[in-house]
């Protein structure tokens, strides 16, 4: 029965011209069938890329939503391929965002600072630490406190938000701002 429905959908797609939009119920039915027939494969494809089942399900859902938004038959003539293309692109976006977050994490920044090799590392690290302390002193109290609790205290953003009675978003903003100031101070010292 499922194969018959797929054939009917394929025939309906082939009947469409490039200029004839599909109506919402037809689009919804096509996407529903795709979900039934290919969701397991799609989620497996995304898990392999994202290394996270939860993220894979999120991206799959977003891909189905985007597929539902298509109006032209030319855009849906190869629905399964288009679904996997959409999902693959969304997965790449997620991976890039994850890499940016990891690259800008305070823990990584200080790990690099404290593990530089060389005989003069201790003197350089002490000098850099003093520059960072000076930079942090120039920040507003809440910003400095959030940064210190997160980086040196090891508290999560959520814990700090509760403790400081602020939103998670504000704490992330404070930590990112402090990181930017510290990085800029070190970059200026290196350039000068």
TrEMBL record:
Highest taxon listed in the record's lineage: Bacteria
InterPro entries: RNA_pol_sigma-70-like (IPR039425), RNA_pol_sigma-70_dom (IPR014284), RNA_pol_sigma70_r2 (IPR007627), RNA_pol_sigma70_r4_t2 (IPR013249), RNA_pol_sigma_r2 (IPR013325), RNA_pol_sigma_r3/r4-like (IPR013324), WH-like_DNA-bd_sf (IPR036388)
GO molecular function, one term: sigma factor activity
GO biological process, one term: DNA-templated transcription initiation
Coiled-coil segments on the chain, per record: none
Keywords: Sigma factor, Transcription, Transcription regulation
Residue ranges of every copy of the RNA polymerase sigma-70 region domain listed in the record: 34-99
Region (Disordered): 1-20
Transcription keyword on record: yes
SUPFAM superfamilies listed in its UniProt record: Sigma2 domain of RNA polymerase sigma factors (SSF88946), Sigma3 and sigma4 domains of RNA polymerase sigma factors (SSF88659)
Entry keyword Transcription: yes
Domain RNA polymerase sigma factor 70 region 4 type: 130-180
Gene3D superfamilies: 1.10.1740.10, Winged helix-like DNA-binding domain superfamily/Winged helix DNA-binding domain
NCBIfam families to which the protein is assigned, alphabetical: sigma70-ECF (TIGR02937)
Family according to the record: Belongs to the sigma-70 factor family. ECF subfamily.
Protein's UniProt name: RNA polymerase sigma factor
Organism: Solimonas terrae
